[in-house]
Amino acid sequence: MIQVNEESRSGWCILAVSGRADAEAAEDLENRLRGAVERHSQVAADFTALDYISSAGLRAVLQAARAAEQRGVRFAVCSPNAGVRRVFDISGLGQVLTIQGELPC
Amino acid sequence: LADRGHIGLKACLAVWHNQAFLGAAEFRFNGEKSELQRLAASVERFCREQPLGEGAEFDLNLVLEELFVNAVEHGGCKGMDDAVRIRMETAAGGVRVTFEDRGAAFDPAGAPAPDLRAPLEERQPGGLGLHLVRTLARDLQYERAGEWNRVTLVLR
């Protein structure tokens, strides 16, 4: 289960994602991230309160990042906890996505 | 001599004490993705009882979810009752996991590795889950036992 709260700040759409990005929640996560990418020019996924991610959650983020790239939208993954960050790194996505310790604004 | 005997007894007691608290837990799951919630709750309880830290719980969850989802979505376990059996036990320096499923014969240790250096637009969605399993697990072994796939591994 995940929860997503969306807000706009200084030209960025910020999606605060909390809970568990597992195979059950992945579709929901992808839809929320892609929805934001379709409506905004700068999107930040705030993972501060994301407890867990699996490969299904990673794929959701990857698909959203691809959609952003195709549309010329800036897309950033922000402040994942150590466990989530490690999953990004092991998968190699840490190198192809913009992952930053802090929110852009 | 008496002193050495005393140390020996203490060592024995320590071993006995540890074994008494070495824990194991077994769970069965149907071949439905909605079982992931119960899987996560089972892992959480096991880790609390041992006790094991947050890092160990994260890795256990991750490895078990990847194996489970793979069996359900690609192994033909979808819709099957009692499709998966999972055993977790604390072992020296980690957790020993036995994951069994009644899906088609499949060796996760032999699955092809994804191209981790591919640029974003060339990324293939498959293969990541098993890559995570192979990276985190030590001593990953597979055997086919009757109608069951049996994967054993150790997490540290």
Q: Roughly how many Å apart are the termini of chain A?
A: 27 Å
Radius of gyration of chain B: 19 Å
Oligomer: heterodimer
Low-confidence parts of chain A: none
Q: What would you call the shape of chain B?
A: globular
Portion in helices of chain B: 40-55%
Shape of chain A: globular
Strand content of chain A: 25-35%
Helix content of chain A: 40-55%
- Largest interface, chains and sizes: A-B, 24 and 28 residues
Order of helices and strands of chain A: EEHEEHEHHE
Give the overall pLDDT of chain B as a whole number. Answer: 86
Work out the strand percent of chain B.
Answer: 15-25%
The radius of gyration of chain A is 12 Å
Largest sheet of chain A: 6 strands, mixed
Lateral strand order in the biggest sheet of chain B: 1-2-3-5-4
Low-pLDDT runs of chain B: 12-21
Helix/strand class of chain A: alpha/beta
Please trace the helix and strand order of chain B, writing H or E for each element: HEHHEEHEE
What is the overall number of helices of chain B?
A: 4
